[in-house]
Amino acid sequence: MMCHGTEYDGLEVLNRYDIYVQDLEELNAPSSLRSMAFKGKFAFAVIFIQITFIVVYAFFVSYTEDADASHPKNHFQNSTESDLHALYPMFQDNNAIIFIGVGFLYTFLKKYGYSGVGMNMLLAALSIQWTIITHNWWNTKDGRIHLDMTSLLTGEFGAASAVIALGGVFGKVSPLQMIIFTLFEVLIYTTNEHFCIKGFHISDVAGSVSLHMFAGIFGCSVAYAVDRKVHVQNNPNESPSYESNIFCMLGTVLLWCFWPSFNSSLSTGDAQYRSVINTFLALLGSCMMAFAISSLLHKDKKFTMGQIQNATLAGGVAIGTCTDLMIQPFGALLIGSIGGTLCVVGFNYLAPFLARMNIYDPCGINSLHALPGFFAGITGVIAALIANEQNYGHSLYKLYPAMAPMHNSSELMEILKYSPDVAPGLARTAPMQACFQFLYVIEVMLVAILTGLITGIFLRLQIFDPVDDKQMYLDDPFWVVPEIKDKKSSISNQMNDSKI
Fold first, then answer.
1. What integer pLDDT is reported at residue 254 of this predicted model?
2. Which DSSP letter does residue 230 get?
3. What angle do CA 34, 39, 41 make, to 5 degrees?
4. Is 444 in contact with 204 (CB distance < 8 Å)?
5. What is the DSSP code string of 240-296?
6. What are the pLDDT digits (tens) for 299-323?
7. CB 333 within 8 Å of CB 282
8. For the range 352-358, what are the long-range contacts, defined as Cβ-Cβ under 8 Å and sequence gap of 24 or more?
9. What is the C-alpha separation between 306 and 293, in angstroms, rounded?
C-alpha cells in the first residue's frame, strides 16, 4: 500500500510539473513576443529613438544663457542670478512624483510589479526628452531650444501626461507598444496644449484639463480601440495582493505629499503661494471624502483600497485649474472634497458602465484624472466668470492675459504706470473669458477621444507585437522573474524526492 501510494504521489507531482512547464511554454514560446525577443525589435527601437534624440539635441538644443559658460555675462563670478535655486526644489519634487510616486502606484497588480515600476521609469525618461523638443519647438531662439529649469519642469509635465494615459492600457500592451504609445501621446498632448494656450488664451496653470483630463480620456480611448481585439476582462492575473496594495499605497502617500509642488511649479509670486495652499487644502478635503464615500458605498461599510489609493489624490487634480486663483481656503476644501467624491463614485458606477462598453480601465485613470479634470475645467469657467480687478488687482491680467486691455489703449497706459510688466491683451470681459474656458474643456475632450482612437487602431498592427490574452498583467513575458525559476526548481526537487 505504501509503495503504491508513493508511486501515485510521484506521478501526481510529475503531472503537475508537466502542466506547469507546459504553461510556461505556452506563455512564452508560440507568441509574437518570443519572436520580438529574437529579433530585438524593442531594443533596436529604443536605441534608434535615443540616437535620434542625441542628434536633434546636438543641432537644436543648447544651454540657456544662465548655464552657458561662454556667455559674456557669466565671465565674472556671481554676475547673474538664475532661476536654479527657486525652481530646483520643485523640479526634484516632480522627479519624486513621476519616478517614485507613479512607479509605486503602478505596483497594485500581484504579478506586474516589475513592469509597473520599471516601464514607468523608462517611459518617463523617454517622455521628458521628447517633451523638451515638442513643447519648445514653437518658441525657438536663433533656431535653437535654450534649455533651462522651466524646460525641465515642462518635460516632467509631459512625462506625467504619458504615464497617466498609460493606465488605460496598463498590463494589456507589450513594451514596444508602450514606446509607440508614449511617442504619440506626448506629441499630441504638447501640440494640443500649445494650441489651447495660444488660441484660446485660457488659464490652467497645473494642466487639470490639458494634462489630466486629456490623459485620462486619451488612455481610455486607446484602450477601447486596443481591447476590441483581445479579451481583457475577468483575467485572473488582473488582481492585487495584500503586499502589492501596500506598495501601491506607498506611491499614493508620496504623490499626496508632493502634489502641491507639481501644481505650483509654473506659478510665480503670490500666485505660487496661493497654489501651494489651495492644493494642500484640496488634498485634505479629498482624503477625508475618499474614506467617507468609500465606506458609505460599500455594502458592508468597509474601505476599498483601490478607491483610497486614487480618490485621496483626486483633490490635487480637481484644484489644478484654479490652484493659483483667488478661490479662498473654503473653496479649495470644497473643490477637493467634491473631487474625492467624484473619484469614488466613478469607481463604483462609471467604471462598470465603461467596462460594459468595452472600455476597460485597469488603473482607474478615468475616475482619478478624467472626471476630476473635467470638474476642474468647470470650476475654471466659474472662476473666470467672477474674476475682477477688485479681487486680483493688476495681477488679474497676468493670470488671464487675454483680459488685459488692448495695445495703445488708454486703459492699458494707466495700468502700465503701476504694473509695467502687464502685456497687451484682447480686452475680454469676464463672461467672454468664461466662454473660452468652456470651449477649452470641450476641445480637449474631443481631441483626446479622436486621437486616442486613431492611436489605438495603429497600435493593433502586428509589427508592434500585441500581447495575447494569457500574457496580460504578467511580468514573465518581459522580465527575468526569480520566483518562476525558484518555483520550477522546487517542483523538480519535489518530483525527485517523490521518486526516491
1. 97
2. S
3. 95
4. no
5. --HHHHHHHHHHHHHHHHHHHHHHHTT--HHHHHHHHHHHHHHHHHHHHHHHHHHHH
6. 999 999 999 999 999 999 999 999 9
7. yes
8. 354/220, 355/233, 357/224, 358/224, 358/227, 358/228
9. 13
For 108, the grid coordinates are 497594485
Closest CA to 116 of 127, 105, 101: 105
- What distance in Å separates the CA atoms of residue 98 and residue 103, rounded to the nearest whole number? 7
The length of the chain, given as a count of residues: 500
Of residues 389, 350, 405, the one with CA closest to residue 372? 350
Q: Which residues of the chain have pLDDT under 50?
A: 1-32, 35-38, 485-500
Render 413-459 in DSSP notation, one character per residue: HHHHHH-TTPPP-----HHHHHHHHHHHHHHHHHHHHHHHHHHHHHH
Q: For residue range 466-489, what is the model confidence (pLDDT) as tens digits?
A: 988 888 999 999 999 986 544 444
Q: Which pLDDT score, from 0 to 100, does residue 229 have? A: 63
Distance separating alpha carbons of residues 123 and 181, to the nearest angstrom: 10
Q: Which amino acid is at 382?
A: I
SS3 content of the chain, % helix, strand, coil (to 5): 75, 0, 25
Q: Are 230 and 466 in contact (CB under 8 A)?
A: yes
Q: In the structure grid, which three cell numbers stand for residue 320, read together?
A: 489644478
pLDDT for 216:
98
